[in-house]
Amino acid sequence: MPENKELEFQEKYDAKHSLEYFRKHQRGLRRRLTTWAERRMLRKALAMMGDPGSVLDIPCGAGRFWTVLAERPDRRILAADYSADMIETARRFQPPELVARVETFQASAFDIKLPDAAVEAIVCIRLIHHIGQTEDRRRMLAEFHRVAAHTVCLSCWVDGNLQARRRKRLEARRPKRKYQNRFVFERDTIEREIREAGFDILGHIDLLPGISMWRMYVLRKRAA
What is this structure's pTM? Predict the structure, then answer.
């Protein structure tokens, strides 16, 4: 098993921040529309993954995607997060009948603490764009390759669109910061890292093609 790896931004998700994270995605038309669109993207990704019978949602956050994962009635749903407070927030505020379907546990995406090929698929939404170091991304992808038997859904920010160009101009104007926790990846770079980790790319789904940075990649574990 890989040694545990912690990301600086993860430490902020105590009980207060976890509750604010949950509430943030309930507020305002824009955030509600984004959640609706991301859930729609995930449905498409699950179909591309062959409608897996068991899925690990990591990091699960406040359980925003559990309703989609539960749309297959017999699916086994596991959910993990680095923050125990985030898991508690999800279990407290998601519908009880949904929570009853989900097996939750605390874990890092770098050290999932499940056996090899423990689930058919892994869903990882809104994490890797926080990881700026190539070696850290490789370690996480290696752990996903170990735990997933077949497929992975991975969301990230990519270049080649209007939002990415705007963000690049914004970053150029900002003072240099000691710590940065969000990154836009060159598509060639992230796709090369995915393939080097032992995955084939089955396809991708863009939130708004040509406009949004958000992309979900659907990956298949390459046969040995």
Answer: 0.88
Length of the chain in terms of residues written: 224
CATH number of the domain where residue 65 is located: 3.40.50.150
Contact 98, 106 (CB under 8 A): no
Question: Quick check: is 174 in a domain?
Answer: yes
Cα 72 from Cα 103, distance rounded (Å) = 15
Backbone φ and ψ for 180, nearest 5 degrees, come out as -125, 135
Does 2 fall in a domain?
Answer: no
How many independent structural domains does the chain possess? 1
Q: Is residue 111 part of a domain?
A: yes
pLDDT of residue 3: 44
Q: What is the mean pLDDT of residues 9-25?
A: 61
Residue 3, domain member (yes or no) = no
- Predicted confidence at residue 2, as pLDDT, reads 40
Starting at the edge strand found earlier in the chain, the sheet holding 102-106 runs 102-106, 76-81, 54-57, 119-124, 148-157, 214-221, 199-206
